[in-house]
Amino acid sequence: MAAAHAETQHHTTTGIDNRKLLMWIFLASECLFFGSLISTYLIFRGDSIVGPLPADLLDIPLTSTSTFVLLMSSLTMVLAVFGAQHNRLGLMKGMLLATIVLGLVFLGFQVYEFRHFAHLGLNLGTNQFGASFYLLTGIHGTHVGVGVLYLASLLVASARRNGLGKEAALHVDIAGLYWHFVDIVWIVIFTLIYLIP
Amino acid sequence: MGRSGPGRIIAIVFSGAVVGVLSYLLYLAFADSANTPQSTWMPMSDNTDNIHAVYQVVFYLAAAVFILILFLTLLFTLMFREREGAVAQQFHGNSKLEVLLVGVPVLIVVAMMVPSFKAIAQNTADPPKGALEVVAIGHQWWFEFQYPEFGITTANELHVPAGRAVSVTLKSNDVIHSFWVPQLVGKVDMVPGHTNHLWFTPDTARDEAYLAQCAEFCGASHANMRFRVFVDTEAKFSDWTKATAADAAKPASELAKAGEQQFTASGCIGCHTVKGNPLAQGKAGPNLTHIGSRTTIASGILPNSAEPMHKWLANPPAVKPGSKMPNLALTEEQIQKLTAYLESLK
Amino acid sequence: MVGHEMQHGGEEHPPSTIRQYVMTGVILTVITVVELFLSYSSLPHGLMVSLLIGLSAVKFVIVVAIFMHLRFENGLLTRLFMFGLVLAACILLALVSLFWNDGTDAVGGIPAGQEQSAPKH
Amino acid sequence: MATAVGTVGHTHEESTVWKWLTTVDHKKIGVLYLVTGFAFFLIGGIEAVLIRTQLAVPNGTVLDAGLYNQLFTMHALTMIFLAIMPMGAAFFNYFIPLHIGARDVAFPRLNALSYWVLLSGGLILTSSFLFGEAPDGGWFAYAPLTDETFSPNKGLDFYTVGLVVAGLASLMSSLNFAVTIINMRAPGMTMMRLPVYMWMTFVVAFLLILSLPVITVALLQLYFDRNFGTHFFTPGTGGDPILWQHLFWVFGHPEVYVLILPSMGIVSEVLPVMSRKPLFGYTAIVMAGAAIGVLGFGVWSHHMYTTGLGTVPQYVFSASTMAIGVPTGVKVFNWLGTMYGGNIRMTTATYYSIGFIALFTIGGISGVMHASPPVDGQHQDSYFIVAHIHYVLFGGAIMGIFSGLFYWFPKMTGRLLDETWGKIGFWFLFVGMNLTFFPMHFLGLAGMPRRIYTYDADLGWDTWNFVATIGVYILVVGILLFMLNVFMTLRKPATAGDDPWGGATLEWATSSPPPEHNFDVVPVVRDRDPLWYNRDHNIPMPERPAHLHIHMPPPSYFPLVLGIGILLIGVGALSSLAITALGVVVAYYAVWGWALEPTE
Ligand code: HEA
Ligand code: HEA
Ligand code: CUA
Ligand SMILES: [Cu+2]
Predict the structure, then answer these.
(1) Most buried in the list B265, B302, D44, D473, measured by CB within 10 Å?
(2) pLDDT at B91
(3) Does some domain include residue C55?
(4) d(CA A25, CA C82)
């Protein structure tokens, strides 16, 4: 996380940093995690015995907005990484902050959506749609939340410093991998759940 | 025993003898087990014939691999075990041999696959036209059988005619159970929310029932969830359907008549149906219309006669852990009446 | 997976100006807008679904390749990640097709109100 | 916190207990795993003894139905998740760095955390007995039996929470091991020079990394079904119990290779060393291992032939399942090829390895038998399956682990286990094992279903059940002999020397037990069997330099604290939100401490 892990600094066989490698393998694992959740959602498509059904609830314009927000957060994230790598501390901090804010906005949209759906009668136990939708998007939201915490810790940690080393850049880089991954998962979810009628 | 000359021959003969004798003894034990009441190696229908045809191929091929590997393992252990002055040959592999060692297993696997595919196709094909339709529903922990054709609902004892295909529709009322009659049909699960199918044509009629047992773990009394299949002649089967479709016999003895009243008074009617008794329409328990003519009660774990019936009514969960039929705290006298009544329901 | 040693990644280098990243962001946005447009269009269902899936795959690849700069990393990382991704996709496809062609007359999918679980006689 | 630890000048201020609690040394953690795994093996074994005692005679009265069902469920869970996997992880921990010539794993503190989380998972699962509500739905917990309608007590919640926690531990350690093997190899140690044991570890790590997420999702869904009113696996609102089965076995089948591959790796190390010749067909064995790993993801529905899978899926899954026999056969033949032409030292480790070949083959071919769906119609859920699983699990996995114990004990402790008693113990285990599990084939053939707490006398099952029960008591003697052997050996002086077997791999190039930094000088690897190459080419061991300046990561208590946090979160999921919240706070504190702690 925030501070340096000197324990893993030494030379590696492949030249890839251990932590970066770890993150990529972890993301491979996450593919299976979200793959199973998405499978569940698709398998239960059309299996809801009672409403409300997706067509009754899903609000594409609204979610398109939040999708756009998340997409932009990827852009700000990559700029934060860029800042870190090019030793532009201000850029990095600003962009990290922007990413965090965008992430929070996305979460806000999600909270709004959940409450709205619950209001319209969709709960976890209502039907298959409710169960698989809330579980999938809820777990995605949890990932976004963890990401926000992760980035916030980086920001706090960087506030105590005014220079940036390679190490710090790597931390931002790795956090970025996680953040982008959560974003692409949303790309898939958005297409499969919202866009495909 | 050594790695060359006579020592080597002794090693080969010894290993061969050990593995040979072992295999023979195991074969005897297998043969012996194949001869037990619930044996899976006694095909008595087209379905199990199909299975058995594959099973034999698979079994003997597996046996061949077993014998070969055991033989080689023992032989190499004897031949190459440490000895003064011997030197281990240093080699890393042998590509030609490797190809062979992949090729032979591939052949074995194909030899198992071809008959398997054939039997899959046969046993999952649609049942022939004119098959007897039966609906089997799994309950914790008993089997319900319906014959839509005859309007029959019964439990735990399935009657089918020899020579006619029986098409069974499998459902479950609660958890997953499995329908398995080792000598008549390979198992297929009864899954809640799904409808499964299987069919088989019994070879010959016989008096003795085929034993069967639920084969998917389904809770406390999974071990006590058994059933029986009677393969009757065409004539006997038709008698059975007539008798079973009819209303329940009217109780004759005084005791039995009192039992009929008790049956209502004790609330049995809430769970059990007795055809012809308009009050008894319950569906939670087995249909008891002709319980008196069944050979067993409580899904095949007790023989059907007064004494076991008495035991059952006195405390079902004691006979069958977890039973969904509660202990109704019946008095000795009530039980006697009920037993007389139930045994009269021929 | 890791058949031989990989010392260094590809020759290409990640974007070196902010402009390039912003452009990528713009492309992603454009694709999203197109997708949105598609989902409201009256194209035949099959075509629309394939287009949508195709476009989101493109977005996926762009983010992974450029934002996560996988394209400019050691090829080992690509292989490791792709292994998980492809496996997940295969299992997803297998599961979905097993359920959508379920041979057991699953009750799910039957219009509401018809049959719930095994019939109660 | 202690200062950086070199070879010289350990600072011994802390108590021994504190040292073990805060250790980040992969060898110490390996020992922790080993002891924990073995303890759980005894617990699982005692459960098995109770099961067999109940089944010794028809209509047994030792256990009632409810307890029996808890026991066989917990027996399987304990053995698989808390005994074999940790014992496998124990050797991984201890020997990955030693085998590849590294000073430690890539993430030492994460490694410690994995252990504490695993222990938490084990405690959660096992503590269910204290409440009399152990899981009782079988180890694969088929819905809807495991839903709150049919299993209203807490048992299945212990199951979901315990397994998620244990799974988290395995995920973390697998990530760690994968990175270590990819990235921490000694100079010259290319992938194709890795010891086979490392290859199998590598495959296992990926199997876990890619299959655990699937079971985690399934467990979450089951937890939601039981606690939050969803119906993923019950027909209530359109859910489907078959989905659980698919998700479980998508994980479950790779999992069985997770259990067997480490033992296959051990056998591939022991046989060449004891035969005094290189492994036959290294490349083929490695490829076969990888092939098993990949194919293992495509066969899961062979556990579901009887669910009404349909015709085509039966074709597909039986073909893929049988195909797995081919790479596995390659391994078996190559082990035999390794023995061929050797000068085999008949040590106890060799006995266990040879036993492995014979017994695993028996289990493997019975596996191939039920790979045929029609045959499986007669096998599924019968004792034939129970015979299969114990031949592969006990005859395979456990035999391999015992081989490894005898082989590596001198490396880990500097002492050789007693060979005579070791061999006597082996014969008890070998005979006991066959007596217990071979008759189960006959029982299966005679139509005895599994998971039944009682059976009638007139079914022809009594003889073989009785024999099987005798067998397990012989097994108990064998295990006790082994424990006695370990106990006696540990009291003797360390006289084994660095390399008692004339080993080929790097762990034998350092002292026994190895120093904390493993190697004074990290060796250069020139061949697959580096030590033999050096021996044959008269390359001397590198000299120990006069001044060693090796910085090892200092001990840390944050893994333990984070582990406690996760334990609290788990306990909270079983009881009250307040405890979960406390757990989150503890975990968050630990993460910060972890991140800010200096690691030099
Ligand atoms: C260590 C664990 C382990 C291992 C390695 C295996 C290995 C195999 N298993 Fe097994 N299996 C289990 C553990 C394991 N299994 C468990 C725990 C269950 C039960 C779960 C439960 O229901 O509780 C189970 C259940 C199980 C089933 C489901 C049975 C049922 O419930 O209906 C099937 C069906 O196909 C199966 C098949 C196989 C096959 C084909 C292999 C193959 O990998 C075996 C390959 C090995 C060989 C074939 C031997 C060596 C090869 C040769 C000498 C070459 C020549 C031979 C041929 C070409 C045939 N296993
Ligand atoms: C790694 C896996 C593993 C191992 C090693 C074992 C080991 C054993 N198993 Fe188990 N078993 C399974 C995995 C395993 N099993 C699984 C997955 C199932 C399926 C469960 C299900 O259906 O859900 C199963 C099911 C199962 C059943 C079927 C239950 C049923 O279906 O009703 C039986 C029955 O005999 C059994 C017996 C045994 C026996 C006798 C041993 C013996 O080998 C045990 C030997 C060990 C010992 C004997 C320990 C020695 C103990 C001491 C020395 C104690 C003394 C010490 C002190 C007091 C400190 N097992
Ligand atoms: Cu019904 Cu087991
Ligand atoms: Cu399997």
Answers:
(1) D44
(2) 83
(3) yes
(4) 10
Query: How many domains are there within chain C?
Result: 1
Would you state the structure tokens that stand for residue B54, as one six-digit string? 């594959």
CATH superfamily of A19-195: Cytochrome c oxidase, subunit III, four-helix bundle (1.20.120.80)
Task: Count other Cβ atoms within 10 Å, centred on residue C40.
Answer: 12
Q: What is the pLDDT of residues A98-139, one digit of tens each?
A: 999 999 999 999 999 999 999 888 888 888 888 999 999 999
> Which amino acid makes up residue D364?
G
Output phi, psi for B91, to 5 deg: -140, 155
D269 contacts: CB under 8 Å, gap ≥ 6: D195, D196, D197, D407, D505
- For D340, the closest of B76, B180, B182 (CB atoms) is B76
Most confident of A169-173, A188-192, D434-438: D434-438
- The pLDDT of D79-105, averaged and rounded, is 94
- ipTM score of the complex? 0.93
Q: How many CB atoms lie within 10 A of CB D434?
A: 18
Q: Is the dihedral of CA A62, A65, A70, A71 positive or negative?
A: positive
Between CA B267 and CA B7 the distance in angstroms is 82
Q: What are the structure tokens assigned to A38, written together? A: 């998405």
Q: What pTM was estimated for this model as a whole?
A: 0.94
Question: Per CATH, the architecture of B132-243 is what?
Answer: Sandwich (2.60)
Q: Tell which atom from ligand 3 comes closest to the C-alpha of B140.
A: 1
How many Å lie between the alpha carbon of B258 and the closest alpha carbon of chain D?
35
* Domain enclosing residue C32, as ranges: 12-98
The dihedral region occupied by D460, where left means phi > 0, alpha psi between -120 and 50, and beta the remainder, is: left
Assigned token pair, B305: 């006669």
Binary contact (C4, D243; C-beta < 8 A):
no
Among the residues of D414-500, which ranges form H helices?
A: 419-445, 462-491
CATH class, D15-540+550-556 region: mainly alpha
Average pLDDT, rounded, for chain D: 92
Residues facing residue C14 across a β-bridge: none
Q: Which of D182, D236, D309 sits opposite C103 (nearest CB)?
A: D309
The rounded distance, in Å, linking the Cα atoms of D143 and B75 is: 48
State how far the Cα of C31 lies from the Cα of D151, in Å rounded to an integer.
49
Atom index in ligand 1 nearest the CA of residue D368 equals: 40
CA distance D139 to D132: 17
Residue C3 belongs to some domain of the structure: no
Q: What token pair was written down for A48?
A: 């809801």
Q: Is residue C56 part of a domain?
A: yes
The H or E element spanning position B171 is: strand B166-172
Do strands B132-139 and B177-181 pair parallel, antiparallel, or not at all (unpaired)?
A: unpaired
User: Which class does domain B6-123 fall in?
Assistant: mainly alpha
Q: What is the pLDDT of residues B235-290, one digit of tens each?
A: 999 999 999 999 988 888 889 989 999 999 998 999 999 998 888 898 999 999 99
**Using the beta-carbon criterion (under 8 Å), do D150 and B174 form an inter-chain contact?**
yes
Pocket mutation for ligand 2, best pick of D79, D384, D442, D467 (most atoms within 8 Å of C-beta): D79
Chain C residues at the D interface, defined by Cβ less than 8 Å, are 1-5, 76, 83-84, 87, 90-91, 95, 98-99, 101-104, 106-109, 116-117
Comparing alpha-carbon positions, the chain D residue that sits nearest to C85 is: D210
Q: Does D191 contact C117 at a Cβ distance shorter than 8 Å?
A: no
Residue B154: in which H helix or E strand, if any? Answer: strand B152-155
Which protein residue has the closest C-alpha to ligand 3 atom 1?
B177
Look up residue B5 and give its amino acid.
Answer: G
Question: Residues spanned by CATH 2.60.40.420 within chain B?
Answer: 132-243, 254-344
In chain D, what are the domain boundaries?
A: 15-540+550-556, 557-600
Q: Report the nearest atom of ligand 2 relative to the CA of D450.
A: 31
Q: Find chain B residues with C-beta within 8 A of D379's C-beta.
A: 40
pLDDT above 50 (res D580): yes
